[in-house]
Design goal:
28% of the residues lie in helices and 0% in strands. By secondary structure, the protein is mostly helical. The termini are far apart.
Length: 50
């Protein structure tokens, strides 16, 4: 963004996408485990517990 609020990029794409996989910003483990368990169950595998 510029000082007047206009975007620096004409195409509207973000400059970066941040991933936080180690609980630095957000406690994401419950969500990660939920997604993993949906996948495991879809393949007939035993889900993980926390």
């Amino acid at each position: 963004m510029t000082l007047n609020g206009d975007s620096d990029q004409a195409n509207g794409k973000p400059r970066a996408i941040l991933f936080d996989w180690d609980n630095t910003l957000v406690d994401s483990w419950p969500t990660i485990i939920d997604a993993l368990n949906v996948t495991l169950e879809a393949y007939g595998k035993t889900p993980w517990t926390m």
